[in-house]
From TrEMBL:
This is Cytoplasmic protein. It comes from the Bacteria. InterPro entries: DUF1493. It comes from Chimaeribacter arupi.
Length: 108
């Protein structure tokens, strides 16, 4: 049986580590929006490998539901408290973990 931690470890291994300005690592969590963590091409490569490793047919995953994704600019948090409004749904590790447990893509 596939676990959440196993899929989380997979994405932590496949995607580049993001850091703060002081080089403190920012680890991916189960509910981290992957669009804000990794570039689209790197995420695409990780999703293809996920398909191979977990046997989940990701051809059902329609990326149009998850892009475009607005990235928050660095100084925004000091300029406004208003959250950034996204026009697309977040794509998270939890979604991939639940789909791996089911053996098929569950979302969209």
């Amino acid at each position: 049986m596939v676990t959440n931690d196993e899929v989380l470890a997979f994405f932590r291994k496949e995607l580049s580590l993001m850091t703060t300005l002081t080089m403190k690592p920012i680890l991916i969590e189960l509910d981290t929006p992957l669009q804000s963590y990794a570039a689209a091409d790197e995420l695409g490569d990780a999703i293809e490998k996920y398909d191979e490793v977990y046997g989940v047919d990701v051809s059902e995953l329609d990326m149009a539901h998850y892009y475009p994704w607005k990235l928050e600019w660095f100084f925004r948090k000091w300029m406004t408290k208003e959250p950034l409004k996204q026009v697309s749904k977040p794509l998270t590790v939890r979604m991939f973990a639940e789909s791996a447990k089911a053996g098929r893509w569950l979302y969209d």
